[in-house]
Write a structure and sequence with these properties.
This protein has helices at residues 15-18, 30-45, 59-72, 90-98, 115-124; strands at residues 3-8, 50-55, 77-80, 106-111, 135-139, 145-150. It has 157 residues and is of the alpha/beta class.
Length: 157
């Protein structure tokens, strides 16, 4: 993997607002779906071409991943990935992620806070506030560094 994109799931209503019994079943709102598409389009605009999307098994992350895949175009594989379910510490989650994706391939990981921010901080040494559908792009060289980060409210229309 040469670049890792960390994307937080898009906006989702609370479990009560969505009428579901568990946090894991919270769906994305329409805004969340649109924001996921917009941020994936921004990845493309900035030269990214993830070939693989790994997502938390929670519904809102799975829906974010599918919306991002639609925006990224044909040929993007999408898989549920338990290590992104927000339960592992950042070093263990990154170790699991680093075993995925071919050399030279970009990977998009869709998950939750605080885990994604902790992975970004572990790799770059800097804190990141990743809001719903926000993205941090990390170059995975000998010394990983943040190439860019963006939250939806910072997108120019």
């Amino acid at each position: 993997m040469k670049r890792l994109y960390l994307m937080r799931h898009g906006h989702a209503p609370t479990a009560a607002e969505a009428g579901v019994a568990s946090d894991a079943r919270r769906p994305l709102s329409e805004r969340g779906l649109e924001d996921a598409r917009r941020m994936a389009a921004e990845i493309l605009r900035r030269g990214g071409r993830p070939a693989l999307i790994l997502h938390s098994p929670l519904l809102r992350a799975a829906q974010t991943a599918r919306a991002a895949a639609d925006a990224l175009g044909a040929g993007v594989a999408v898989e549920a990935f338990k290590a992104l379910d927000n339960t592992l510490p950042p070093d263990a989650a990154f170790a699991a992620l680093s075993g995925r994706g071919a050399d030279g391939e970009d990977v998009l990981a869709v998950g939750h806070q605080p885990q994604l921010g902790e992975i970004a901080a572990l790799l770059t040494g800097a804190p990141f506030e990743i809001r719903p559908a926000g993205v941090v792009a990390i170059e995975l060289a000998a010394a990983p560094r943040a190439a860019w980060s963006l939250n939806v409210g910072e997108l120019l229309d």
